[in-house]
Amino acid sequence: MTMPTLVRRLVWIAALGATIGGTGLLGPAAPAFAEPAQLDLARYRGKVVYVDFWASWCGPCKQAFPYMAKLSRQYRPQDLVIITINEERQRAPGEAFLRQVQSKLPVAWDSEGTLAKTWQVNELPMTMLFDRQGKPRFRHTGFLSDKTAEYSAQVDALVKER
Questions:
Q1: Contact, 72 vs 102, CB < 8 A?
Q2: What is the dihedral of CA 21, 23, 26, 29, to 10 degrees?
Q3: What average pLDDT does the segment 43-71 reach?
Q4: Residue 20: which CATH number?
Q5: In sequence order, which residues have a C-beta less than 8 Å from that of residue 138 and are 6 or more positions away?
Q6: Crossing angle between the packed helical segments 91-101 and 59-74, to the nearest 10 degrees
Q7: Band (41; pLDDT cuts 50, 70, 90)
Q8: Number of domains forming the structure of the chain
Q9: pTM for the complete prediction?
Q10: Which of 9, 36, 54, 130 could, after both became Cys, cross-link 110 (CB 3.0–4.6 A)?
Q11: What are phi and psi of 86, to 5 degrees?
Q12: Rounded to whole angstroms, what are the CA distances from 42 to 74, 134, 135?
């Protein structure tokens, strides 16, 4: 098995929430990590996980960041984890974007598009919500500010599930 094939398979396994044994995602003190293969959703078993794919040139992505920040403040870290995944080849525009929207949310830099391919991301932003068992439950393409009540209701329902 070639290295790219192995990485794709590991990312796929992680995307489904299976344990792959990596140290994976960052803790609260480290707001970014470099390699998407480190995305290990199993680390967050028992929590609702909100994963958002974005790019700096995406207008709806810019609108989604304040909403995600609000969700982050609304729920305890024991209940909800928000992970953002940048889909640009160059990191500098994404970093400038994060400064502009004043985001402190965790970021994965998917410059090769590995996660986007694995998760079949064809439009930005694209959001997936995983339940406490790591099962994908909701998927949204685009961000519409008039639908935030619907998005919030889905997050709230998953947080209330035990």
A1: no
A2: 140
A3: 96
A4: 3.40.30.10
A5: 127, 128, 129, 154
A6: 50
A7: confident
A8: 1
A9: 0.77
A10: 36
A11: -85, 135
A12: 23, 7, 10
Domain extent for 140: 3-160
Q: For residue 88, give the nearest of 111, 65, 108 by alpha carbon.
A: 111
For the chain, list the strands marked E by DSSP: 32-33, 48-54, 80-86, 107-109, 126-130, 136-141
Do 136 and 113 touch, CB atoms closer than 8 A? no
Instruction: Tell me what the mean pLDDT of segment 67-87 comes to.
Output: 95
- The whole-angstrom separation of Cα 9 and Cα 118 is 9
> How large is the average pLDDT for residues 107-135?
93
pLDDT band at 59 (very low <50, low <70, confident <90, very high): very high
Query: Residue 124 in contact with residue 58, Cβ under 8 Å?
Result: yes
| 79 vs 158: CA distance, rounded Å | 9
Give the separation between CA 156 and CA 131, rounded to whole angstroms.
11
